[in-house]
Structures are given as C-alpha cells and as structure tokens.
User: Fold Branched-chain-amino-acid aminotransferase from Cohnella zeiphila.
Amino acid sequence: MPIRRPEPIAVRRNRRPKPKPETDALGFGRFFTDHMFMMDYEDSRGWHDPRIVPYGPIELDPAAKVLHYGQMTFEGMKAYRSPSGGIRLFRPDMNLKRLSRSNVRLGIPPIDEELVSEAIRRLVLLDRDWLPAAPGTSLYIRPFILAVEPLLGVSPSREYRLIMIMTPVGSYYEKGGDPVSIRIETEYVRAVRGGLGGAKTAGNYAASLKAQEEAASRGFAQVLWLDGVHRKYIEEVGSMNVFFRIGEKVVTPALSGSILDGVTRDSVLRLLNHWGIGTEERRIAIDEVAAACRNGTMAEAFGTGTAAVVSPIGELDWDGERLLVGNPGEAGPLTRRLYDELTGIQTGRAPDPFGWTVALDGSEEPAKPGRD
Ligand SMILES: *Cc1c(COP(=O)(O)O)cnc(C)c1O
Assistant:
C-alpha cells in the first residue's frame, strides 16, 4: 500500500448541544458528549471518510457480522484537566498500539494510529467543555470497531466502522475508594491462553457477566479470575489487572496471553521499579495467595485499570474461607502512594518523569449553543 497522508477529518457540528449534567450525577458512562467520531473501512478502499458528527444512534444492517459473531475491538482512555485548565491524555500511544494488536487477534485490519490520534485530539477539543473540573473527574474516551458487513457467513468481515464516543466520569473513585471484598471464582473462566483474553473485545466481558452477577448477589465487588486450564493461577480481578504485595516484593501475573496488557499495569510496574521496589511478573498460584493471607505476609492487594486507576482489595473469599489482606478497612501505603502518584501525573499536579502525558492544544472552538 502506498504511504499517503491521512484524509482530513470532516466536522459537522451539533446544533443542539445538550445541557451538561451536574458533577455529582456523573457516575461512569451514563452521559455522552455532543459529538462522536466515525470512519469506515472497505477492503477496496481501506479506512476512509473520517468525520466528527453529532452524537446519536447509528444505523446498522441486522445482518452486520458484529451482531452475530462478536467481531469487534475497543479501547478505553481518559482525558484529564490540569490545574492550569489544560487538557492531558495519559499514554494514548499505548492504547492505540493495543487497539491494533486486538485487531490482529480478531482478524480486523489495523488502524492508522496517527489518524485516530488526531481524531482523539479534535474530538476532545471540540467537546472540551464536557471535561469536568472537580478533583477525581475526567473524560473517558471509548473508541471501538465493529464488523458491519451484512453477511451471515462465518469469516472476517470485509467492512468495518470505527466509532469514538466520550463520557464524563465522576469522582466516585476518588482516593482510590475503600478496600473491597473479592470472590475467587472457581466455576467460570473468562479466557484461556490462545483465546481472546489478551485482546480488548466484547466477548471477554460477555464471558464474565454471569460470574460478576453471582458475586455481586453475594455482596462481593468483583471476582478474581483463575486460569482456565489448571484453575490454579491468578489472572485478573474483574476487568482490572491485579497486584499483591507479599512481604517486600510486589508480584503480578505475567502476560501469558490470557490476560490484558494494561496501560495502568505497565505504569505501576515502571513506577515501582523507579522507586526501587522489587517487582516480579510471574505465575502466582492461588495457594500462594491464600498462604500469604493466612500467615500475615499479604500486606496489600489492588487492581489496576484506567477506570479506577488503583483499587484496593480488602479481603478474598475462597469457597467460603475469608482471606484477609493487610489492615482491614484501609488501603495500604503503597496502594495509596501509587494512586496519588499516578493521578498526580495524569492531571499534571505531579512532575511527569517518564513523559507519559500528552498536552492537547489547538484552535478547535468548543461547541456552543446556536453555532453551526
Ligand atoms: C481494559 C482492561 C484492563 C485495564 O487496562 P488499562 O489499560 O490499565 O485500562 C484490564 N483487564 C481487562 C480485561 C481490560 O479489558
């Protein structure tokens, strides 16, 4: 394929911007901004027609492959407001690379990362007034790719649509939240090596819903997934990567192909190494976790992900046995330090020694009522 300059992004402004919700009502993923980005793919044309349009329902042929075979990928990242009012993204290149990797696994053509990166910049700047200012709030950006070819044959689609929507996120998770109780899942599995676990795709979530619902009905916040083959090694917690501080070492499951390569996971490992704290990426048997809880060496445990950043785990339930982590009822010191440091870097409150943040600037005028 010849290298060509990306097509310019067409913009059709929303003439009827919505009122912004109150910060207290935000929650996660309940309100959407005034615009969305879209572009299309056909085998013969590649990705084309990049455009920003008013947010709204999309039309999809009922035979679109995604609706029958789940061929899709997605990403999740956030824009943050800095103390001086600027807007920052956190390691967006990692999300775009991961989207391309997920695409490869799902048989979807790669994206033009430069073009999607420009689309993020334009969309965030256009809807910048939707980025809340209160501490702990952010604007969540959700790009996703759907197989839209109307054909019920089981084969990779020859047509796709990339859509990107944005939702303001409240400060629900501020301070990393209180430690939660987690149920160790011994019946269901979410992914196996060789399957889709390393890709960000809807099917992994579909596989997790029943277990999550059963755990929630028993009062647990999330499930801790074990590997699908031996039912023995730790994988992830809910849809977050998981870390344990056992004694003076911090351990997390190695990327084996069945868990997601989290941007927050990578950032936590880099920070810990920077601080001189020993880390290990390896297989962690549930028996090792249980033994450490029983003998009092399980000092801290936490999940990591873009949504909650760092989320402390207070106890684990293993077939009815309560396994306690650290000091009951409070997040451990390292969990808190990681949360503060990461959110500090993300919002520009703390120095960014790794060059992780990308400041957005540009002349894009925010959407205002009455403009076209
Ligand atoms: C998105 C996701 C994560 C967290 O990844 P981040 O890049 O840190 O947000 C972890 N596990 C699963 C299954 C995910 O989908």
Observations:
- The longest strand covers residues 159-169.
- The chain has a mean pLDDT of 94.
- Residues 10-174 form a domain with the D-amino Acid Aminotransferase; Chain A, domain 1 fold (CATH 3.30.470.10).
